[in-house]
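// run 5 | inverse folding | seed 20
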């Protein structure tokens, strides 16, 4: 197992002490990508490892780095509905209106997966509701199409 694989494995296991030791030996690990193009921040965010996300942010990990699909950590946590992690990422300067390769934003993903609390939180942080994906659909369009009345009301 190479150093990058070991680092991602340690993140998945959630071993903070080992992550800190690895970063001490090689601070550049915050910039590596795994075979799927995930950065350590995206990977830790995806697995809801908030303590590790905080550690990575304290090591100046690139907040808006993208995976192979163009997703940032914030876009990734938005479809899962983890508002605590999303707030942390936004507090550290994550671009709330970033788009992935398909033009999907955190708001669109939160809407597509009926994450009402995430939509509420993003709206409180002045997310742009007018952005459309590559198919020309906005978050409102998805909410209406899927019958997510609560989100339709929020977006109106």
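// decoded
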């Amino acid at each position: 197992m190479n150093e990058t694989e070991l680092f991602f494995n340690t993140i998945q296991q959630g071993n903070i002490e080992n992550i800190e030791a690895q970063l001490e030996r090689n601070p550049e690990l915050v910039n590596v990508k795994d075979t799927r193009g995930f950065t350590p921040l995206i990977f830790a965010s995806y697995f809801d490892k908030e303590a590790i996300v905080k550690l990575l942010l304290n090591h100046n990990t690139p907040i808006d780095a993208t995976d192979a699909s163009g997703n940032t950590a914030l876009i990734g946590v938005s479809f899962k509905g983890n508002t605590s992690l999303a707030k942390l990422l936004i507090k550290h300067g994550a671009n709330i209106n970033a788009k992935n390769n398909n033009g999907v934003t955190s708001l669109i993903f939160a809407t597509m997966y009926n994450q009402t609390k995430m939509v509420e939180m993003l709206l409180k942080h002045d997310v742009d509701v007018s952005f459309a994906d590559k198919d020309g659909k906005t978050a409102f369009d998805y909410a209406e199409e899927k019958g997510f009345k609560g989100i339709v009301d929020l977006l109106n």
